[in-house]
TrEMBL record:
Molecular function GO terms recorded: ATP binding; hydrolase activity, hydrolyzing O-glycosyl compounds; metal ion binding; N-acylmannosamine kinase activity; UDP-N-acetylglucosamine 2-epimerase activity
NCBIfam families noted in UniProt: NeuC_NnaA
One Pfam family, short name: ROK
Protein name, per record: Bifunctional UDP-N-acetylglucosamine 2-epimerase/N-acetylmannosamine kinase
Organism: Pan troglodytes (Chimpanzee)
Domain UDP-N-acetylglucosamine 2-epimerase residues, every copy: 38-370
CDD domains: ASKHA_NBD_ROK_GNE (cd24060), GTB_UDP-GlcNAc_2-Epimerase (cd03786)
Amino acid sequence: MPIGDCSVAAKPRKQLLCSLFQTTLGYRACASGWKPMVIRRGSHAFKDLINTYRMIEQDDFDINTRLHTIVRGEDEAAMVESVGLALVKLPDVLNRLKPDIMIVHGDRFDALALATSAALMNIRILHIEGGEVSGTIDDSIRHAITKLAHYHVCCTRSAEQHLISMCEDHDRILLAGCPSYDKLLSAKNKDYMSIIRMWLGDDVKSKDYIVALQHPVTTDIKHSIKMFELTLDALISFNKRTLVLFPNIDAGSKEMVRVMRKKGIEHHPNFRAVKHVPFDQFIQLVAHAGCMIGNSSCGVREVGAFGTPVINLGTRQIGRETGENVLHVRDADTQDKILQALHLQFGKQYPCSKIYGDGNAVPRILKFLKSIDLQEPLQKKFCFPPVKENISQDIDHILETLSALAVDLGGTNLRVAIVSMKGEIVKKYTQFNPKTYEERINLILQMCVEAAAEAVKLNCRILGVGISTGGRVNPREGIVLHSTKLIQEWNSVDLRTPLSDTLHLPVWVDNDGNCAALAERKFGQGKGLENFVTLITGTGIGGGIIHQHELIHGSSFCAAELGHLVVSLDGPDCSCGSHGCIEAYASGMALQREAKKLHDEDLLLVEGMSVPKDEAVGALHLIQAAKLGNAKAQSILRTAGTALGLGVVNILHTMNPSLVILSGVLASHYIHIVKDVIRQQALSSVQDVDVVVSDLVDPALLGAASMVLDYTTRRIY
């Protein structure tokens, strides 16, 4: 919740005038060579709005000037008169303060008066949260301020592109994120229950109440009042304790307050009606609510930081980018629709969203402010089409690499990597995979926190976390259902919740075979193909199936267990409990088993080979022996390759893909045998299907990253 229309200026150091929506910015501005001076104006002058300006005074900011610029009336004419009154009063203040830069925040009608005054008085303007799209008159005001502003700080990549499309200078746009997220993502209050009880009563529990915040839609006041009435009726029927905040002072707000009083909301036992909640307390209230409902930008923007369910009513925020926690009821024309939405959303918990920020906006803004040359010409220039193809900036405070945190849980090692949008591994961390659940989950959290901190230093913006793990995985819930024998204490494990809660990032989880297929789809030889299959040849045998460009999970998340295709009825025992599976012949474990047998019979080593006493015999020794001419080792590898080839033939006959990709450390040793088996055993109609070896170095990490990168760039996964 922005503090609103209190403004700040500075002298004798660099002079700064701004809408101060978060005192963090003011504190850091002081430390960076700015001396803020505050002007109290707008709705902060109203005593019946709890004198919110006192919050700024309590943070040790002196209020130098008080301006009454809001005309009471709460209708369209009053809004126009308020803008006019501000335009009359502001010139005297600006002449006295003589700020070098004015920071204008958001899209309120009174912010337009600030921007207009500054532009006409040759004061540089920096606009925060420009380029966004909501769905009301705010859009027109926001874009009007954009055209008056000299510099722009936006919150999302889409907003940045909108600004560029509006012919704003690329070099004067900073993609920083929303400053309020700096406080949201660092907000920790173990005593949040005392705040909940203070505002909602002693008998209320966390996640068992609703926060309602609804404003008038100035372009359709009559409908917005009716929608508010339906909302209150639905909340009364839903019968949960509800904190209702009064609407803002836009046209139509007076009628909405009348609706509240007509329905007795202020005296209803299930409702607490308030005009203002301090920001720090409001954070805790929405973070621990069972649901938030209304049409405030707070719901679609800030609340996503906590994963709290949100019901967005009507068209006031229809154009906003939202996380998956937001359910839209665009035609909120019946009580039943709103009530149904409450039943669907209440009590759910969603992954934390970082669409609007990652908690580092204020440092970026201050760095941007420092880079502004006050000696350069004041006249702003527009960059008319054609727009530059490369919208990334060349200065370090703007250029950030969109990246994902990728986690690979293998039988031996636990790896975490920062992976860029292009599939480049910026940095990788490796540790031995602990044997117990507690040690493993703690190590994952520790490595991810360290990697996320390092990402800031490397100028990488982390969009989310992707996890590749062995076993059967429910990707919808982020839960490992059943693990392989290589990873102990790893059944029914919720990976999404602890990581999302710790990092405040969305988290995706999938099986390592599926991740390998996703890696090939985004970065490898499967890119652009509609249908292909990936087979992983490593310690075990796994795989992934892409059909019509989408990954196949199956009805019980057991699709693509290709290592357990049976190729012989009387073959060796497999770790799955069956026998004759591909994995029982061609996996690293199977080759190690055969290598040990040969070594125990003194039939493994040939001239030029040795195995140190302290070194375990493994698959690589068998491969080395075969290369040096050991006939028995060659026969074992040929049998293993033939079993894998028969499995590929079955895949070709079943799925008829356009490509089969062999991945993993053993792929290059099997490829020629597999192709021979296809020529001998496959139907002629599929013999032309290409079988290739993957050229990706870390398919599990790249696949884990692709889950994040595909989703956050609006590709549905």
